[in-house]
Give the backbone structure.
Amino acid sequence: MPTDFTPILSTIGGVLIGLSAAMMLVLEGRIAGISGIIGGLPSAPASERAWRAAFMGGLVLGGVVMVLLVPEQFGSNDAAGTGTLVVAGLAVGVGTRIGGGCTSGHGVCGLARRSPRSAVATVLFMTFAALTVLVTRHLL
Amino acid sequence: MNVLASLLSGLVFAIGLAVGGMTDPNKVLSFLDVTGAWDPSLAFVMGGAIVVYAPIYHRFTRRTRPLLQPEFYLPIRQSIDLRLVAGGMLFGVGWGLGGFCPGPAIVSVASLRGDVLTFVAAMFAGMLGVYLYDRSRASRR
């Protein structure tokens, strides 16, 4: 299951993500951290729910557009069964909330802000993700 | 206006994730498989985003306020505590098992595939669990 090396497309995707995060900062003064924006929905005061829901709506809307335009960009995880996906989803949900961020908030915005917390979190989640793949693909 | 700005930001973010390859769990797992058939493409997603965002962040936050809000709402926590460390490790294990992090998972809901919907439902349950746990602890104090 090797995948193609796509440095140009991936850089373009990264630039768009950077521009989106910049838009959030320049217009709203906020960090574009997806797990924080969405996971913070239930605890946020009522006045803060609209922009959070709107950001999530933008993600879903963008997903609809891209699934229609470039369905080949949406692969599936053939290696993982339902049980594995449930454990994975729970780990990502709990981990990003107690860790205060995910790939966007810590990995992109936090590293760009030179936040020590985000540097620690990013090294840890990258390392543990790679170790998990090492175990599931090569040791089991 | 604020709602529109957030919606637009989310939309551009989603397009970036899909173009960059983050919405393909096989590509994510190949990126994480450094000892196997490694595909380093996704490092270019992170690198591209940081190269664009970092200079804008450092220049713009010198101003007193953003364009549509009275002040900045930036993280202030500095402590490297157990929650940060445990959360980072747990998130890594989940990302390596499922091949999805939160953004690409939500963007991929539109594909209506079973694996994505299962993952997203579990992810929301996990997020809600942390919220309920924190709330019950706060009310006991």
Remarks:
- The mean pLDDT of chain A is 96.
- Residues 7-139 of chain A form one domain.
- The helical segments of chain A are 7-28, 34-39, 46-69, 82-98, 103-112, 116-139.
- Chain A touches chain B through 114 residues (CB under 8 Å).
